[in-house]
Amino acid sequence: MDVGNLSTVTQFVLMGLSDLPRVRLPLFVAFAAIYHITLVGNGAILLALGTERKLHTPMYYLLANLSLLDIFCPSATVPKMLHDLLTGEHSISFLGCAVQLYFLVALAGSEVFLLAVMAYDRYVAICFPLRYSLIMTRARCVQLVCGTWAAGFLNSLLHTVSTFRLSFCKSNLVNQYYCDIPQIVALSCSSTYVAEMLVLVVGGMLGISAFLSTLASYVSIISTVLRIPSAAGKRKAFSTCASHLLVVCLFYGTTIFTYVRPSSSHHSPARDRLVSMLYGVITPMLNPLIYSLRNTEVKGALRRVLCGGARAQQAGR
């Protein structure tokens, strides 16, 4: 192939749901509502945790970081998706695509690592309750959280550089509503071996390590809970990690369904992209609902924040 006759890609076209135009406006309304609920829900969690002094503990400090990630992660893709659904325009610049991919991978990776840290926190609390305050000190907690963010962003930098150093001279149609590594690499007209190996080896190793760490923590937690003689003690111990366990199952369940499920000839590419959309917006919306409904301390803090705000408005009148 004569490379000199090929034009260089300067922008990409995000396919999104362009081949399902009849559902474009209903989807805009639905996803705008979901995104709004996500921002309000996670913002309320942050406000409640920040104002309630008794919740200034390692467990809730980690929860606050999860809420931040649940705000930032959909914000990397959903505003652009809503713009495309509303206007029918689907183009994104080369630099814009690189920036979107960088933050998306960084924030998603940070969440994987943070879930592992949260599982470790519950492991220490249940398996070593008398030593919990000595192990999960404020300094240790800050170090772990900084490590999760740093690991996510450094890992993303590696993948973003390796992906966008490729030559793009084929089609510029991205088979997704956002810029993601597999779809961008598929458009390259140069060797993709290094980029694919980095995803497989580095990304796979970090992701599997975080998953196995989370799994090992909960295997130990369940083993410890089952050895508690009283039913009341078991319920109390399990209640301290039930919300996080639900969040972990939701996160990995939707991830596996989105990326690992076999493609079906009965489903159009647009239907598969719709599943990806749901994965990207539903999980961040449900996380604050899970914690506010199942965690009595968070529920109480939210109630006091909302009641305090209502009283302040009445006093102002």
How is this structure best described in words?
This protein is mainly alpha-helical. 74% of the residues lie in helices and 3% in strands. It has twelve helices and three strands. It has helices spanning 24-51, 58-75, 78-87, 94-127, 132-135, 138-164, 181-185, 193-226, 231-239, 242-259, 269-294, 296-316, and strands at 11-14, 91-93, 173-174. The chain is globular and about 65 Å long.
Features of the shown structure:
317 residues, mainly alpha, three-stranded mixed beta sheet, 3% strand, globular, G-protein coupled receptor, olfactory receptor activity, G protein-coupled receptor activity, olfaction
How many DSSP helices?
Answer: 12
Query: Which term fits the overall shape?
Result: globular
Average pLDDT number: 85
Q: Which secondary-structure class do the elements indicate?
A: mainly alpha
SSE order = EHHHEHHHEHHHHHH
Low-confidence stretches: 1-6
Helix-residue proportion: over 70%
Return Rg in Å.
22 Å
Query: Main beta sheet: strand number and arrangement?
Result: 3 strands, mixed
Question: What oligomerization state is this entry in?
Answer: single chain
